[in-house]
Amino acid sequence: MEQKTRFKLAAFDMDGTTLNSKHEMSTNTIEAINRFANRGVQVVFATGRMDGAVKGHLDKISSDGLVITHNGGLIKNLKSGEVISRKVIPTTIVEEIVSFSKISQTVVHINTDNEVLISNNNHLSEKYAKELGITLSIHSFDRVENIEAISLLLIDEKDKLKEYLELMLHEFKEQFDYVFIPWDENIWMLQFLAPKTSKGHAVIELSNLLGIDPKKEVISFGDSYNDLEMIAETYFGVAMSNACKELKDVAKYVTKSNDLDGVAYVLDKLEMNEQRFLCDL
Questions:
Q1: Residue 91 CB neighbour total at 10 angstroms
Q2: Helix, strand or coil, per DSSP, at residue 79
Q3: What is the per-residue pLDDT across 237-277, written as a single tens digit (0 to 9) for each?
């Protein structure tokens, strides 16, 4: 007899969490997620990726199609096309960031609903596109006032981006939100979002819309700084063993790494004896 579960929604970060180092979902992870979904749990990817970089993975799991993309900038049903929530970055912020990228020669991506716009080809953008399995579109950034940006991504050395972020926070406080995470060695990614936007806020917003209590009925999985609010504010926040220290500190549980099927490990434990597993923590 299948055991009942207290959970009604499961939010999964993708890179570094549900996906392994090859940016793939293992068979064990896919099967564990699908068994969890078949117990009546709403399965949702909550990611910094854009829609086009999610769909191929979404097709492998049992899901109604609901996803949180752009680190909370967009909540959408990819199967029906319905947009639940959509937040656009103010034009003044877009113009400022594009201007900075031209002067500093920093790689910038303007992410709209369906496209990733770049001003020219470069090795960092090509590597990023290959990892996510997406296509980039060349676009003139001379005029950006008609571009509705859900997110903007800068890719460069950590110290350079950190200095620019501090400047932006001083000059444009409360006009944007952001995510600042490591990517490859000394290369970091600074993603700008609309004000009051985060992955965690979107998970809570979606849960409430579905009549689900995030403090009692939501489990979440993550590995990086952009997962902090989601892991801290949901009932059972799980950090991967490869997660940053700050995330492990707020998580209810630290599982195995993304390369050792850490997501599947927790879901299997819950399937075997959920009450005992949660009580033993």
A1: 14
A2: coil
A3: 999 999 999 999 999 999 999 999 999 999 999 999 999 89
One-letter identity of residue 53: A
User: In this structure, are 201 and 81 located in the same domain?
Assistant: yes
Q: Is 22 exposed, middle or buried (0-12, 13-18, 19+ CB in 10 A)?
A: exposed
Q: Which letter does DSSP use for residue 42 in this model? A: E
pLDDT of 143 > 90? The answer is no
Contacts of residue 206, defined as CB under 8 A and 6 or more positions apart, other chains included, come to 9, 44, 66, 68, 75, 84, 85
Question: Is residue 19 located within the same domain as residue 108?
Answer: no
What is the C-alpha separation between 10 and 62, in angstroms, rounded? Answer: 12
The total of other beta-carbon atoms located within 10 Å of residue 52's CB is 18
Q: In terms of residues, how long is the chain?
A: 281
Contact residues for 248 (Cβ-Cβ < 8 A; gap 6+): 239, 254
Please return the burial class of 154, using the count of CB atoms within 10 Å of its CB with bins 0-12, 13-18 and 19+. Answer: buried
Residue 103 belongs to domain spanning:
91-193
Whole-structure pTM value? 0.93
Domain total in the chain: 2
Would residue 204 count as lying in a domain? yes
Name the one residue in this structure whose structure tokens are 């390369």: 259
